[in-house]
Amino acid sequence: MTGLARGYWCECWTEDATGEGPALLASFDAYSAPQADRWVAIALRTISPALDSDASDEAWAWLHDERAETRRALLRYEHCTVTITHAGVRIIWTIRPVLFLPLAHRQNIELPACAHSFKPRTTH
User: Fold this and answer.
1) pTM of this structure
2) Cα 68 to chain center, whole Å?
3) What phi and psi, each to the nearest 5 degrees, are found at residue 93?
4) Sign, Cα dihedral of 72, 78, 80, 109
5) CA torsion angle for 34, 115, 26, 39 (degrees, to 10)?
6) Measured at the alpha carbon of residue 79, what is the angle toward residues 54 and 39, in degrees to the nearest 5?
7) Over the stretch 24-53, which tens digit does the pLDDT of each residue have?
8) How far apart are the C-alpha atoms of 86 and 5, rounded to whole Å?
9) Residue 58 burial (CB count, 10 A)
């Protein structure tokens, strides 16, 4: 399996309580468990001042109490999900173990032009 790299595919989705389907907000390719859980931690710390009190409590509970278990699960190469609910909107971060294939035209962190024509399918 030359050229394959183990890592994690990270996504952030939102789901509106009104029935609006899930929307992909961001995605990130992480090459280590610390990098993957740090992506979620940075997002939670960044948005926590704008969250309602319940959502902020959920965010800080994960950051202080549950993050270590997430990291251990990632080190076991297991799928993890972090979810908070703010004002009727669920924000869901998923981290999935993957094998990355090298991209021929990739330059450092820039994706090749063809990556922007990809349209993810939503699952219900």
Assistant:
1) 0.77
2) 16
3) -105, 130
4) positive
5) 10
6) 60
7) 899 999 999 999 999 999 999 999 999 999
8) 36
9) 21
